[in-house]
Amino acid sequence: MVLALILSGLPTSTSAQQPARRPTIWDVRLGTPVGELPEEEFVDPACGTNGGPPSRVLKGFAEFAQCVRERTTGLHEVWVVQNGEREYLIPVVAGTTLGMLCADVPAVALGSVLPFAIPLRAVRLAAAALFGALGAAALLGFRFF
């Protein structure tokens, strides 16, 4: 009876207790109005250079019009730094370590077992292809962790 009373007092949904998730750069959609960008999460705005390094430093998102407008879309490319990049440190280190292991272990294992049966060039190409495939999968948004 006491257990039933205790359990009846527990909340049925845990979603109200979960803290709000911080936005990431992947949450910002192409064409998002300047007023909707969280300036406390994305810092050091600057004009972009077609995916390259930043060019003109901006005081805030409101100065986006100083950046070059793309001819096809009419949008301005703005470069930012995500505040809180440390939260990605472990996945990046783990991902690069896993990628290198996937590329190096087959080469070392095959090189010690079959030193002359498989050409070294073929082993290197296979390792490079595997490493490249993992990188492409990561760029395409596949999450391994």
Instruction: Provide the gyration radius in Å.
Output: 24 Å
From the N-terminal CA to the C-terminal CA, the straight-line distance is 43 Å
Give the helices and strands as they follow along the chain.
HEEHH
Class by alpha and beta content? mainly alpha
Alpha plus pi helix count = 3
The amount of helix comes to 25-40%
Architecture overview:
- This protein has helices spanning 2-8, 89-113, 120-139, and strands at 42-47, 78-82.
- The protein is mainly alpha-helical and 145 residues long.
- Helix 2 runs antiparallel to helix 3 (120-139).
- The longest helix is centred in the last third of the chain and has 25 residues, at 89-113.
- The protein has 2 domains: 25-83, no CATH class; 88-139, no CATH class.
- Strands 1-2 form a two-stranded antiparallel ribbon.
Question: Concise description?
Answer:
The chain is mainly α and 145 residues long. The chain has helices spanning 2-8, 89-113, 120-139; strands spanning 42-47, 78-82. The chain contains three helices and two strands.
What are the main properties of this structure?
145 residues, mainly alpha, two-stranded antiparallel sheet, 2 strands, elongated
SSE blueprint:
Blueprint: H1 2-8, E1 42-47, E2 78-82, H2 89-113, H3 120-139
Antiparallel strand pairs: 1-2
